[in-house]
Automatic annotation (TrEMBL):
Gene: hisG2
GO biological process: L-histidine biosynthetic process
Subcellular location: Cytoplasm
A molecular-function term among this protein's GO annotations: ATP phosphoribosyltransferase activity
Species name: Methanobrevibacter millerae
Name recorded for this polypeptide: ATP phosphoribosyltransferase
Length: 329
């Protein structure tokens, strides 16, 4: 490449072994990565076996900002943050593709003993209150947009724009409904006196532990690879190549590589059975021997127990199951 491509790698939950280990994803995709081990990330990261990539650590909240301004060429970030950045200004980011991890939902939550089942119920019940409604969130733009689209809010407040505060910056003219930026640990604000929160969650367990319940879902999100609209064609081609490598590692996690021996007299029969019952990715690979042959198949992990049961009925022996690191179609 004539120019190096600048890659933003996510800090936080997207590089966490419990939610989305982006470091391991790059390793599985064949990249030698230094300085990005979960819990021990450096702001300067090296991709040792690809000199065309310059990598930096980026916070999920700031990655869309950096992409829009061409500070990074490509970045891995949740779609929730891309949409948060694009509420008030047109975004020039290009989605290269989804990466199928870091899945979350952006939800509205209230105390679990509240009588409200949705946001409309909440506004209806609080229409005559004399003190401001307080909502804390890390997503003030999406939250305000969602509130203003609510029919009951419109009935009560018309086109008035909820008051928003992000640290010392304020905006909006409806101080009876206030959206306050939380900067994390959002669920604790209910205990401190907030009326509702907007937060992301995977399973809802942390919300339930905090004594909260969900009443609305704003959006669903997962991590993806995004490119700046300022990328050259050469950089976009490189971004697509990186995506294919990563996608291959993600796809591989859904399959087992299975080998087994079978009598030559049963090869045709067992192969036909595997194909007709979709117990292989394409068709079996056969390594022929004098009396027995080895059959090799890629099998979706969810179908593996069924396949084992089936091939045993054909007297299969020496069954070996291996994990895959990468699968590129």
């Amino acid at each position: 490449m004539n120019e190096k491509i600048i890659l933003g790698l996510p800090k936080g939950s997207l590089n966490n072994v419990k939610r989305g280990n982006t470091h391991q994803l790059f390793v599985d995709a064949g990249y030698e990565v230094k300085g990005y081990e979960p819990g021990d990330e450096s702001y300067e990261i090296e991709i040792l076996n690809d000199e065309d990539i310059v990598a930096f650590l980026t916070r999920p909240q700031s990655t869309p900002v950096e992409l829009n301004r061409g500070m990074v060429d490509i970045g891995i970030v949740g779609e929730d943050w891309i949409k948060e950045e694009s509420v008030l200004r047109e975004s020039n980011t290009i989605k290269i593709g989804d990466l199928d991890y870091g899945k979350t939902r952006l939800i509205v939550a209230v105390p679990k003993d509240s009588p409200y089942d949705n946001l409309s119920d909440f506004f209806r019940a609080n229409k005559d209150r004399k003190t401001p409604i307080l909502c804390f969130t890390e997503y003030p733009n999406l939250t305000r947009k969602f509130i203003m689209e609510n029919e009951v809010y419109q009935e009560i407040y018309g086109d008035a724009v909820p008051f928003v505060q992000v640290r010392g910056l304020t905006d909006g003219d409806n101080e009876m409904v206030q959206v306050i930026n939380s900067d994390g640990a959002t669920e604790v604000y209910i205990a401190k006196g907030a009326d509702l929160i907007v937060d992301n969650t995977q399973t809802g367990s942390s919300l339930r532990k905090a004594g909260l319940k969900e009443i609305e879902t704003i959006l669903q999100s997962s991590a993806g690879l995004y490119a700046s609209g300022d990328c050259t064609e050469e950089k976009l081609d490189k971004a697509k190549m990186i995506y294919e490598q990563l996608l291959g590692a993600i796809t591989a996690k859904k399959y087992f590589d299975v080998k087994f021996n079978i009598s030559n007299s049963k090869i045709e029969e067992v192969s036909k059975y595997l194909i007709e019952n979709k117990l292989c990715a394409d068709e079996p690979t056969i390594n022929s021997g004098s009396d027995f042959s080895q059959i090799n198949v890629l099998i979706p992990k969810s179908r593996f127990p069924e396949m084992i049961d089936a091939i045993k009925k054909f007297d299969a022996t020496s069954i070996i199951r291996n994990d895959l690191k990468q699968l590129v179609y």
